[in-house]
User: Fold this.
Amino acid sequence: MERIYLDHASAMPIDPRVLEFAERYLKKDFGNPSSLYSFGLEAKSAIEEARGKITELINAEKETCIIFTCGATESNNLAIKGTAIRNMAKGKKVAASAIEHMSVLNPMKELQKGGFKLTIIPVDSMGIVDIDKLDSILSKDTTVTSIMYANNDIGTIEPIKEISEIVHEKGLYLHVDATAAAGRIPIDVQNDGIDLLTLSSNDMYGPQGAGSLYIKPGIRLQSILPGGGQERGLRSGTENIFAISGMGEAARIAKIEMSQESNRLKVVRDKLVTEILKINESYLTGHPTKRLPHHASFRFSRIEGESILLNMDTLYNIQISTGSACYSRTLEPSNVLLAIGLKHEEAHGSMVITLGHSNKIEQIPIITKAVKETVEKLRKLSPL
Amino acid sequence: MVQIGYSKKVMEHFMNPRNVGTIENPDGYGKVGNPVCGDLMEMYIKVKDDIIIDIKFKTFGCGSAIATSSMVTEMVKGMHIGDALKITRDDVAEELDGLPPRKMHCSNLAADALHESIKDYKRKRKKQSP
Assistant:
């Protein structure tokens, strides 16, 4: 049976053009970018070329605003801990929305243990940040406020520009995790008013093992990984040239192809949502319109998400994700689903679909049938 | 090597669960778990001369919750209730060639549901006999 992969938020295949572009750094051009011989300089120029491509994708002021890391988790950690600790003299408060990724929430909780005050900003039932609440809790000593561009579990896109105005009026810096949004919808750090922006290579069809952090000129951070002083001293360690170079190329392709590909996937997504919502007691989670174009998320009452995942994979070779507790490492349901007001038993029945290059409109009847049969099968087993 | 994911036996029971359903007027009924936690199991038994002659279950929960329910029903059909009461969560997990560590406690409730149904049977029997 042909695989139908619907979990692009978890991992994405590398674009063959990206692989072709960057594989020379795995195969032969392995020089250390810090070495002065020509071989090393070539590696250095590959990194700078990638930096330029990321700069263009997000319309950063200049190339030096971009710091490469090993991925979004590291970028989020650097943005939050690095900024909060370096700017401690200005205040010891941080804030984040309730639907942030663990790589934002957990560094914030770590700061809290170190004496910072953390405030969690609630979201409404669609996942949109409560603007009034944000306005009321921020103060000049809130050095870092972290709100994601769009959410990976429910697809909701946040009103970043509006949020940015409030943060800059009441607080200090705005960090935006754009892992789920980048390469899917346009991002312009200058127009959106973003101070720190996290990107992930793999979430744009680049290789795993690279990420980046945009830092607006003038903002000072402390390194969280001291060492040999690479990346302006903010991120030491010999650069992963293959992954960085690939991330740059992925960003270049995304800038050119994003709009067309997102429009194509939106058509597939909308049709899929219409079909799946025909199932009894099925509900869309997240915002119906302000959502990522490739993202569809649901919940089904009386059944559990890990069972949905296993049955879809085993019987139909279709891979989806879920926010169920039984699927998580912590055995807690997705913080996002609880934050939008779902009860625990409702959050357990969630299913998340994230589309990508390989998905086509022709797959919809197969997917719909698989979901319908899976839900029916599990409901027959359910005592509820 | 550390076991990754579910064993073949767990998947086999999850995909083709045995003894699914309910029994009308059961001799014993047990219910454990809670949908809030993500697992809820109901066990129905029919008993004759202290032997479990029929058993059915309904489960809301993850792969291991469903597989352990199915497995325990298969293990105790035809068994004396005294022996069935001795079956532990670990026995069920072992019969399934193991469960991932984090699943051992939360979704391995099938033995508990079975015990509850047997206790219910004993209570009912006590009431009936003068």
Summary: Chain B has six helices and three strands. The first strand of chain B starts at residue 28 and ends at 34. Chain B touches chain A through 26 residues (CB under 8 Å).
